Amino acid sequence: MRLGSRTDLTPTQRETVQTIWAQWSVRRADVAIANGNIQRGVDILSAAAAAFPDNITVRKAVAGGYLTAGHAKESLAIFKTIPLQDASAADFQGAIGAALAATDLTQAEAWLRQALDRFPADPAILSLAARYEQARGNNQRAADYYRASLAAMPKCRRRQAGS
Predict the structure, then answer these.
(1) What angle do CA 84, 118, 155 make, to 5 degrees?
(2) For residue 88, what are the contacts with CB-CB under 8 A and spacing of at least 6?
(3) pLDDT for position 1
């Protein structure tokens, strides 16, 4: 794509252009999917992935978009190519969510272990751990994680979750 590869931009500016383009693509894909045009949404995401294959931010956005579109296996395949050693809690949430949606419990467990080591009090990570345990059939442990997730939520979010 010409816009993201302009030679008159610095590498940081090029990355910013690519990120803006990717976010716009994901939003357009989300709108298409929400309006029932799933194939159009997937086509938009595929174009974004093809346009900027080396941009990690673009790949994360595309993987999240595929997950939203219900293409869990494609999302998981992309997340597996993204290094997560410096990942944020949100990055882990997307990756674990994709693994759970694709029923790849082995991958979900590996990412959950990393996420829980780095973000042990993150309510969304704890909730994903509960979903993982539920998928494994360990309802008691799932309930423990759900309780921990609720306890880790800020008070204003707990009031909203309880109502």
Answers:
(1) 120
(2) none
(3) 46
